[in-house]
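Before a colleague's protein record goes any further, I have to sign it off. Thanks in advance; the entry in question is below:
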Amino acid sequence: MVIDLEQLESGQLPLELAVSAITMAELAAGPHATYDADERARRQDRLQRAEAAFDPLPFDGEAARAYGRIYASELAKGRKARGTRALDLLIAATACAAKLPIYTRNPEDFQRLEGLVDIVAV
């Protein structure tokens, strides 16, 4: 959602926003994940704006414990936690530990986490 933040209406979002350190890591990797100079510049700009606007929620001991619960839930439902899916689960664990909902444009990425973290589609 951070990628599309400017495209969202303020009424779709809570008054205060938070971003996980995992999300910031994804944004930091973004400029390096393209060979297109214009896209790299857009991604670098997005990263710099996010860094200026947010003090990211850390992935701490509480988030690590929440990740264990989320990971176990995924395994019990027959899903694997690899690749970008693992990053989504780390973001969910951060939200779970902070007792915050996840606002996302991709609610299907988190749909199986009901009961562990609240998901709000925007």
About this structure: DSSP finds four helices and two strands in the chain.
